[in-house]
Amino acid sequence: MKKYILFDHDGVLVDTEFWYYKAGERALADIGFTLDRDQYLQDMSEGFATWAQAKAAGIDEQTISRQREVRNVYYQEYLRTEDIEIARVLETLDVLAGEYRMAIITTSKPHDFALIHEKRSILDYMEFSLTREDYERAKPHPEPYLTGLQRFGAAAAETVVIEDSSRGLNSAVAAGIDCIVVANEFTASHDLSKATARVATFRELPSTIKGLAS
């Protein structure tokens, strides 16, 4: 029986992954480099950053470091101005909160995470949130989700992870935790075959989680 839910964040609770990509694309365009979207998605699925293509093309680390800061400014601009809501998230969390203890395990940077939730109430449903500075090795390494289990004092068998990408899915699988994948157009090309279950919308989670125990 499941007692705990560990949520990924970007693409699951808020629709931010596209805007993170657009911020990186814009920062690289500033120096005349065109980011290939298909390769970006492949790199993302394997845990690599926006800058993998630029590095492969020989762009020096100093330039990449400078443009990384530019990307961060662009991304925060998008977070302030673009619609990043996902339908029925709060209503569904309200249902889940009656039966499960919940937390967020994200690769988001603390500043971005704080900005996203400055005027949202998603965190009211969570016992804790782990951002990128709360663990050493990022997804697809299992450390983020293992750290979440440890914080809860939970067993893997009592827990379910909610993800949208192969990177996060592989992290959950490596941690020995069942993982439900929520459909996301931006990660639709990822290999999600290891998922315990897949749903088209966030609102399907309550019934799907219950089904894991049957």
In short:
The protein is of the alpha/beta class. It contains nine helices and six strands.
Descriptive report:
With 214 residues, this protein is an alpha/beta fold. Helices cover 42% and strands 12% of the residues. The protein contains 9 helices and 6 strands. The protein has helices spanning 17-29, 37-45, 52-56, 61-81, 89-96, 110-116, 143-152, 166-174, 205-212; strands spanning 4-7, 101-105, 128-130, 159-163, 178-182, 197-199. A 6-stranded parallel sheet has the order 3-2-1-4-5-6, with helices on both faces. Strand 2, helix 6 (110-116) and strand 3 (128-130) form a beta-alpha-beta unit. The longest helix has 21 residues, at 61-81. The radius of gyration is 17 Å and the shape is globular. The N and C termini lie close together (9 Å).
Would you spell out the secondary-structure blueprint of this structure?
Layout lengths: L3 E4 L9 H13 L7 H9 L6 H5 L4 H21 L7 H8 L4 E5 L4 H7 L11 E3 L12 H10 L6 E5 L2 H9 L3 E5 L14 E3 L5 H8 L2
- How many helices? The count is 9
Specify the oligomeric state. Answer: single chain
Q: Tell me about the largest β-sheet.
A: 6 strands, parallel
Question: What value does the Rg take, in angstroms?
Answer: 17 Å
Classify the secondary structure makeup into a structural class. Answer: alpha/beta
Largest sheet, spatial ordering of strands: 3-2-1-4-5-6
Shape: globular
Poorly predicted ranges: none
Distance between the termini: 9 Å
Q: Please state roughly what percent of the residues sit in beta strands, choosing from under 5%, 5-15%, 15-25%, 25-35%, 35-45% or over 45%.
A: 5-15%
Round the mean pLDDT to the nearest integer and report it.
95
Task: Write the element-wise H/E pattern from the N-terminal end onward.
Answer: EHHHHHEHEHEHEEH
What is the β-strand count?
6
Helix content: 40-55%
